[in-house]
Amino acid sequence: MHAYRSHTCAELNKAQVGETVRLSGWVHRIRDHGGVLFIDLRDHYGMTQVLCDPDSPVFAEVEKVRSEWCIRIDGVVKARADDLVNTKLSTGEIEVYVRDLEVLGAADELPLIVFGDQEYPEETRLRYRYLDLRREAMQQNMTLRSDVVASIRRRMWDQGFREYQTPIITASSPEGARDFLVPSRLHPGKFYALPQAPQQFKQLIMVSGFDKYFQIAPCFRDEDPRADRSPTDFYQLDMEMSFVSQQDVFDTIQPVISGVFEEFGGGRKVDADWQQISYRDAALWYGTDKPDLRNPIKMQVVSDHFRGSGFAIFAKLLEQAGTEIRAIPAPGGGSRKFCDRMNAYAQKEGLPGMGYIFWREGADGMEAAGPLAKNIGPERTEAIRQQLGLGVGDAAFFLGGKPKTFEAVAGRARVVIGDELGLTDKDRFAFCWIVDFPIYEQDEETGAIDFEHNPFSMPQGGMEALEGDPLAVKGYQYDLACNGYELVSGAIRNHKPEIMLKAFELAGYGADEVKNRFGALFNAFHYGAPPHGGCAAGIDRIVMLLADQVNIREVIMFPMNQRAEDLMMAAPSEPAAEQLMELSLRVLPKD
Q: Is the pTM above the cut of 0.85?
């Protein structure tokens, strides 16, 4: 017999009744039923009930066993009585009578209990992550993650892609976040960087003549943490293709992503029709470039109904350039109580509030209620209702100003309204491509032009587009949103050196700076670079959605905490003086 097990804790059934077996695992739970000890023995695969009574030669040793001890038992498989069968377990028809026991690893008093659904502070869970990972939900999440990655790989290979690895130690390159720098021992005073993404390398792979590349790539960014973002490192499906248009990229990645969601989505509907929505329309309709389309609410511009109206706040606001009034329709939200609650929500989010109108049955039919309705009068109120397609029992909320000052709050309010009114279909994965991103933006104070989005995207219209108004230039850049999260980001790349120089020149970067910072890519483009494009999909975020989690740390094996600390490994840590001397570094004292 094997030294540790003849079967896993999920394999035994009535077919093995009477056999002597060997199992190894962790003591999940112990129950004492009048001198008979029952132990739920757990391994990665499942659970088996083992029992021991005073007739067993190892009863005294079994009595000493405690939760989470790692043990090996030998025993005889017995059938359970029909009324004692546990249908929740694959091994629920049998139990194992213990004849021998070996303690493989005793456990001290536990800082967190593996059995049950107790909630523990995140600090405790991360400090003792190896215990937290034993819990059933975490085992399922990590297994799901592994299976998703394997499925992605198979799907990419099936489409003719090959996997290539790119360097982990490289040069610093701005990708929108801070680099993690690595000091060089052999070159004192110089630093490598951990790659924020394989962006330049995968473009160079295309220049090298490889037609289809992908990689499950680790990326490193020194970012502020969020619930859906790791503050240090993450993994992405990175891909690039030569001789492709934007639509080619969409047609390639859609079956991979939708296939994974169909395979692991637990029966939830996966939308087959992926809309393409311009960045401008997404901001207008949803207040975000990663909209949740499960929520049917679309915001609309209603400025004309307030110009010169009796509502002085909005009327005067609209006299200023660049301002507008937007409405958030709220079907079913037509009560003063709900309207007041949403107004308080806007105030909590830092705005003065949200105006509202709601429609109800009146003495002479439908009537509009609320402060705004009284100020602007019945004619304007009715025009708003018709534009928004609302009726009795519905409401609308209004925000005004320059869109960038209220757009994000409006977007969040739209989500809250959809959730509270039961409008959002939770049993669905809704995808959409966000396209036509502006490449440039203007600083309102200085008037300076800078990049708003990916500077390596090919401008729509090429060099000719760059000769006109920079703020009108859109890029062949795209994001894929799903249920309110950005899952994929990519672009058709700018592969022509003269267009690259012009694009950076408009943002205030001289030719020498471009050549210095992006020399490898710029030089490579002088040697027959093919048109190419691709994208990257966030593995962690995909698994988070499939696992129905809202915190990305629930699907990462060993995550950092909110302060970018590894409590288990005590990282970051202070280097020894000898290490600093070897690297020619000195740490300045804190202020």
A: yes
